[in-house]
Amino acid sequence: MANILDGKAIAEKVRAEVRADVAGFTSAHGRAPGLTVVLVGEDPASVVYTRNKERSAKECGIAGTLIRLPAETPEAEVLALVERLNRDDAVDGILVQLPLPKQVREAEVLRAIDPDKDVDGFHALNAGRLATGHPALVPCTPLGCMRLIAESGVELAGARAVVVGRSNIVGKPIAQLLLAKHATVTIAHSRTRDLPAVCREADVLVAAVGRANLVRGDWIKPGAVVIDVGINRGADGKLVGDVAFAEAAERAGHLTPVPGGVGPMTIACLLANTVTAARAREAAKRRA
Ligand code: NAD
Fold first, then answer.
1. Is residue 207 part of a domain?
2. Number of H helices, E strands in the chain
3. I want to staple 269 with a disulfide (CB 3.0 to 4.6 A). Which of 55, 58, 143, 187 is the partner?
């Protein structure tokens, strides 16, 4: 039976590390790291996510602020707010919650965020820095996956890793992070031929698709580390991942559950990114 990688417990460890880092930063610089979360509109899931982000930041000693704008806010006003936050020295991290209402272009807003405050790691400059091996703010979910993989104790150098899914915010950055750790990485996607055979080669398998129970037990190499990023609603309304959990648990060496695996890691890594951004900004000020 697979060892279950407990995302809740590991996220709690990350938060404890962040709390200690925040305390150290605050005493060194006379101010707490600042995170501003922007929510445009009333999307119910986004309301919950942004509240959790603000509350979790405050719990760790970060100066968390949530700014809510009405759903009909014009794009120019959202961009003006981002510009103001870019200039605000007390703000180290800016997160604009996606999706945005249709009159506001996502790409324009993401491009407007100062890359050094881009704690979601979605700015093209951060994606480029990650791809070229330069220090970057890395998207939170991929960062959380890497921490879970690290907790499994697997040696990544030389390992075969397969990432199923090629989105800019999950699949591609996870693949880059695995490559940076010297894994031999395959990115599989909706056009991949014989996906089960590709998955069977993986010492580390990451599923980031959004299809309930896509990855079956017999797609998994015995003993593999399996990270399930997918969040899907099953026929009974319960949350399920992209990996058929019970089958996978018979074959995998380590496996993340859904819920309680990757999910809790994402906010913890956002808080860690806020401290990373704050430290980098203070270091840049000292150099200037
Ligand atoms: P996306 O829709 O942008 O990308 C999905 C990817 O899966 C695409 O690259 C596509 O090529 C691939 N794909 C689709 N059907 C496929 C198939 N049949 N076989 C192989 N590949 C296939 O989604 P995303 O934003 O990358 O998110 C993926 C999943 O992860 C979703 O379920 C999402 O809810 C979840 N997610 C979870 C967290 C978290 O914190 N746990 C964060 C972000 C996303």
1. yes
2. 10, 11
3. 143
Catalytic (active-site) positions: 53, 97, 120
Same domain, 177 and 94: no
Is 38 a member of any domain? Answer: yes
Only one residue has tokens 């648990």, namely 249
Nearest CA to ligand 1 atom 17: 190
Residue 19 located in a structural domain: no
Write the pLDDT tens digit of every residue in 166-196.
999 999 999 999 999 999 999 999 999 999 9
Taking the C-alpha atoms of residue 62 and residue 26, their distance in angstroms, rounded to an integer, is 9
Is residue 178 assigned to a domain? yes
CATH number of the domain to which 215 belongs = 3.40.50.720
| Domain interval for residue 242 | 140-263
Instruction: Estimate the share of the chain in helix, then strand, then coil, as percent rounded to the nearest 5.
Output: 45, 15, 35
Asked if residue 220 has its Cβ within 6 Å of ligand 1, the reply is: no
Q: How far is it, in rounded angstroms, from Cα 97 to Cα 74?
A: 16
Residue 79 has pLDDT above 90, yes or no: yes
**Measured distance CA(244)–CA(4) in Å, rounded:** 14
